[in-house]
Write a structure and sequence with these properties.
By secondary structure, the chain is α/β, with parallel strands linked by helices. Helix content is 36%, strand content 17%. The chain folds into 2 domains: 212 residues, 3-Layer(aba) Sandwich (Rossmann fold); 139 residues, no CATH class. The protein contains 13 helices and 14 strands. The protein is globular.
Length: 362
């Protein structure tokens, strides 16, 4: 999967354990699905996953990793990827924008991305098959980019991987879960909770002022293929200035989260949040306690590589010190009144403890 800040790769065993502890749970909705790493893991564990994200690139990832099923799409996807892999490069908007005006990719790879994306557009594929080949292209581009993982900027000197040739690979799509076919939605989160239902709701909202649209604007433009007007050194889409989420606003965050928590319909809520977020653990526990019994788990992990490198000005001069190298990720498990019996959560074979007790996962 693509490099992504806030990825839950190391937290997956804890999330899966929490979901597995819910009696009779068959469906899980992921309301801020991002890369769909969590949804993909839940589908692999045989749950019916209902994914949602308001960004087009994230909804495409969910359509590939949650909704698309291997048995139906593997053969046509492999045939298309072989066809696209044979295309010669043809420089176009993508090359001009992200290889000439900015330096996210080497021009040789930009030209191939242009050619392949135009070929995908010309096919008018059905949505799930199109999502699989688009994700294959996105992941191929991610393997040869020249960033620290965010598209807010690119490296001053080319990353070693940027010199490699673009290579298409079939994404790790899964067979359909026995609990039922997954779904992928592209809704604003409040519209999603009004429409979607599941046994378990997983919430991983943005936690600071940096929007995922701005962080991954290249993927948004690659998926939409709308060749938008761009601005700045990083050639961001102009709608990065206007498409704002209340979850990226310190002033609006608390009210937005309170509204969301009150509206979600599920037996169990699992909320992932960071100790660098707009509200602290005590505030989060207070909000979630309105829905039921709360248990808090935490996971210690390294900050993303850009934060570890330090703070530099546009001339490449170091201008600030890194305040800390590790963060705590909190996983809040909320048992609502709809739950038939209390959960039995364990870590390393030991009970988690009373509501609100902190259990450390190393």
């Amino acid at each position: 999967m693509i490099k992504y800040i806030g990825s839950k790769r190391t937290l997956l065993p804890v999330v899966l354990e929490a979901v597995a502890a819910v009696p009779g749970a068959r469906s899980v909705m992921d309301l801020f699905s991002g890369t769909s790493r969590v949804g993909h893991a839940l589908k692999r564990a045989d749950y019916r996953v209902i994914a949602n994200d308001h960004n087009a690139y994230a909804a495409t990832l969910a359509r590939c990793y949650v909704a698309a099923d291997l048995d139906a799409l593997e053969r046509p996807a492999r045939m298309l990827l072989a066809e696209f892999a044979a295309l010669p490069g043809e420089p176009g908007w993508f090359t001009e924008t992200f290889c000439v005006r900015s330096r996210f990719f080497q021009p040789k790879n930009g030209a191939r991305i242009d050619a392949i994306r135009e070929a995908i557009a010309a096919k008018s594929l059905e949505p799930e098959l199109e999502a699989v080949v688009l994700v294959a292209l996105m992941e191929a581009a991610d393997r040869v980019d020249s960033t620290c993982g965010l598209q807010m900027a690119y490296l001053k000197q080319w990353a070693a991987r940027a010199h490699k040739d673009l290579e298409l690979r079939l994404p790790d799509i899964l067979p359909r879960a026995t609990a039922g076919k997954g779904e992928a939605h592209q809704l604003e989160v409040f519209d999603a909770v009004a429409e979607l239902r599941a046994d378990v709701a997983y919430l991983d909202p943005p936690y600071n002022q940096h929007s995922y649209l701005s962080n991954y604007h290249v993927w948004e433009s690659l998926v939409l293929w709308d060749q938008p007007e761009v601005y700045g050194v990083a050639c961001k889409r102009v709608d990065c200035r206007t498409r704002k989420s209340p979850f990226n606003s310190k002033r609006k965050f608390h009210a937005a989260l309170a509204e969301l928590i009150a509206a979600v319909e599920a037996k169990v809520l699992i909320v992932s949040f960071n100790n660098e977020g707009y509200i602290d653990r005590a505030e989060m526990e207070q909000l979630l306690a309105t829905r039921g019994r709360v248990t808090v788990l935490s996971h210690d992990y390294k900050r993303y590589v850009g934060a570890q490198i330090g703070i530099y000005n546009p001339k490449g001069e170091k201008v600030g010190a890194v305040s800390h190298l590790r963060n705590l990720e909190y996983l809040y498990v909320v048992e609502t009144d709809a739950l038939e019996r209390p959960l039995e959560l364990t870590t390393k074979g030991e009970p988690v403890g009373a509501p609100g007790q902190l259990a450390l996962f190393e």
